[in-house]
Amino acid sequence: MEYHDSEKAVEVAARVEAFMEEEVLPREREALRTQERISEDEIHEFWELAKERDLFAPQVPEEYGGQGLNFQDMLPSFEQVGRSLFGALSIRANAPQEGNMHTIEMAGTDEQKEEYLHPLVQGDIRSAFSMTEPLDGGGSDPKMLKTTARKDGDEWVINGHKWWTSDGYNADVLLVMARTDLDAHPYEGTSIFLVPTDLDGVNVVRNVGHLGGHGIVDIERGHAEIKYEGVRVPEEALLGEEGGGFRLAQLRLGGGRLTHCMRYSGMAERSLEISKAYLQDRHAFDGTLSEKQALRHRIANAETQLHAARTMVRHAARELDDSDARIEVAMAKLFTANVTNDIMDLAVQCLGGNGIGKDLPVAYFYESVRPFRIVDGADEVHRRSIARHAFDDVYDEDMENVLTFDSDLDMT
Ligand SMILES: Cc1cc2nc3c(=O)[nH]c(=O)nc-3n(C[C@H](O)[C@H](O)[C@H](O)COP(=O)(O)OP(=O)(O)OC[C@H]3O[C@@H](n4cnc5c(N)ncnc54)[C@H](O)[C@@H]3O)c2cc1C
């Protein structure tokens, strides 16, 4: 499909594609064949290769060591890296690091950028975003956040309990969301803090076990459960404005949702390619499987839906470069998460036993795509936002109860 991406976007994506074909995919095939995982040292070697080709951290401004692409221009490159199980990691465009870098870049002071953004981009430190809380706290409804940060002199004291903090197990710094004004509405009384993990009171309880695994890379990542027990940070640890945590998180998530869409579209495209190649080669019931109408129609639907998803993501990325594009991003995320889930499921089915086996990347893609309908806002949460917009609802000051419905329908 021709999407009329900018010249720059197409040029960088062509170089990323060459990097994937020449360096990354051959190593991935070997790891799948031998089932020996790729070490962290090797990932650092890939970073050096990416730097030599001016492909390292394409989403980060040049002054911080990246390639300075905006959302529209990074899009086709992110689709390319999504095609490999460790493509995003190989050029340091992987979640959650990429989203955390973006957040510090948007809101950090010069000192914070010096301390965290530079080493984060270079891969010298690791970060994690710590918002979701266990059962009685903030999840789909982040207004339920229970973690607090209380001012004590020129320090903040953080108390709370989080889980699902991706990459939190080995992180050096955590971006922690906490209520800083309990009298204000959570949207106005919540802030984000940069919390080094070696501070007293930062207690990593465990990695939460989950669907899917380490993939083919031998790096302890996982999703941490963390208790913050009287953690003291200086005033300078506040990221962005006091009380501006929700607005900042929204900006982080908007971009993060789209970059996820880009990578998962790449995975879906590769899964389809592998399936089509298999169906064309595989003979059964007097012909190739690719001649069976039942499968042909499903592949046709998948191609159509993936094209629609990629088009929606392009539209939302264009809007996001100039606004928060909340509804466009919600629609693109909801649609892409479902389309890529359906396609990975179809790919597994078309490949028969090879879809379940781990000689091919498809089984790994299948495991990794299911959470996408839950993380970064579950399907239902995005439908809720889209419906609120569709009905033009007007809410009370808690943004919960509908006060009036704007309607063109004249019932009198
Ligand atoms: C792999 C993975 C990585 C993650 N990484 C991070 C991270 O780095 N940092 C972080 O802070 N969090 C992270 N999370 C947490 C994630 O953001 C939450 O799991 C998600 O927001 C849902 O919250 P919850 O688990 O509390 O589910 P709940 O809020 O309990 O919701 C459960 C289900 O209820 C349904 N539902 C919710 N609201 C509505 C509604 N209004 N109407 C109808 N149905 C509804 C949805 O289907 C939802 O899945 C991660 C989660 C996973 C699985």
From TrEMBL:
Q: Which domain of life is it from?
A: Archaea
- Coiled-coil regions in this chain? 292-319
Ranges where the Acyl-CoA oxidase/dehydrogenase middle domain occurs: 128-213
EC number(s) per entry: 1.-.-.-
Tell me which residues make up the Acyl-CoA dehydrogenase/oxidase N-terminal domain: 7-124
Q: Which UniProt keywords apply?
A: Coiled coil, FAD, Flavoprotein, Oxidoreductase
SUPFAM superfamilies, per database record: Acyl-CoA dehydrogenase C-terminal domain-like (SSF47203), Acyl-CoA dehydrogenase NM domain-like (SSF56645)
User: InterPro entries given for it?
Assistant: Acyl-CoA_dehydrogenase, Acyl-CoA_Oxase/DH_mid-dom, Acyl-CoA_Oxase/DH_mid-dom_sf, AcylCo_DH-like_C, AcylCo_DH/oxidase_C, AcylCoA_DH/ox_N, AcylCoA_DH/ox_N_sf, AcylCoA_DH/oxidase_NM_dom_sf
Task: Read off the Pfam families from this record.
Answer: Acyl-CoA_dh_1 (PF00441), Acyl-CoA_dh_M (PF02770), Acyl-CoA_dh_N (PF02771)
* GO molecular function terms attached to this record: oxidoreductase activity
Question: Which cofactor(s) are needed, names only?
Answer: FAD
Q: Which residues form the Acyl-CoA dehydrogenase/oxidase C-terminal domain?
A: 243-390
* Enzyme's top EC category: oxidoreductase
Similarity field: Belongs to the acyl-CoA dehydrogenase family.
Protein known as: Acyl-CoA dehydrogenase family protein
Q: Which organism is it from?
A: Halomarina salina
